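Aggregate trends can hide what the representation actually does to any particular protein. For completeness, the protein is quoted in full, as a sequence line and a line of structure tokens.
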Amino acid sequence: MQSSFRFIKALARQDVDSTPVWFMRQAGRYLPEYRAIREKVGGFLGMCKNPQIACEITLQPIQRYQLDAAIIFSDILTIPDAMGLGLYFQANEGPHFKDPIRSMRQVQNLPIPDMQTELRYVMDAVSLVSHEFKNRVPLIGFCGSPWTVATYMVEGKSSKQFSLIKSMLYNEPATLLALLDKVTTTSCLYLQAQIESGANAVMIFDTWGGVLSPENYRQFSLRFMEKIVHYLKSNPITKSIPIILFTKQGGQHLKEMAQTGCDAIGIDWTVDIGHARQLVGHQVALQGNLDPSVLYATPENIEQQVKATLAQFGHGNGHVFNLGHGIYPDIPPEHVQAMIDAVRKYSPAYHQQGKVT
């Protein structure tokens, strides 16, 4: 059944009638229905760990908009939380860990979480959403890239300079590599469990890969994402599930990303999608890549920007329309609708199935 989804077909670079569209952070603070739940339930982490609430939030944008995919409501830091680092969220500061990683001994003592105990709430949420959808739209499972997850584990919180983890990278590379290996092993099991629970595609978010030099990106980020891809593609249970890689500010690495064996690459707005297609379009599908700030514009300007992005990609298949990053919290919901309407209106002309003969 899943092969009939427009989104899944686009990831496989097959013919579709129009360009599929979904958005990173499409279930979030810009929606009044999300804010109502958060006010009632409380903290972000509590919502993630309640499968019924996570299911309801995942469904919200699908009930409001005509989207081609849903993404499970969760967080990239569920893995280190399950490893016992003590994740908590502080108002106006984002995620923090009580016990950040600073030594090889700590890395060696990190457990590999059991997917059906410590992370069961994620699998239960995926199962609930999969059941609720009843094949309406595909569900995307996800994890953070090992490098991105490790930045939080070492820094203990969000960072701008990444001084602690980069110090570890240069002074104690064996410690960092051991940490990345452990997070990679867990991520493989985590994505497999999400697929077994009903996810139709998976995405690896490398939010902070762009802060690395090219050589360090290859050694400390891309290499470990590639290990996850190889694990999933060599596993009979997961080999048919499409995998999307996304490195924010990773435009210079597109060719290398395409060689990992992934099915699609997400690109941000700093990359010309037409140029990206010239580089890798025959190997992988492309997802993106409108600047999220376009959603602050008027509906008329949003429509023009959508038209420009579709024209830059050009005719043919293998394009999933998305933003270059997540929807910002103060975006008007009706502007999201305007963007979806523009994709529905103008994208069929770029596909053989959508042309009027």
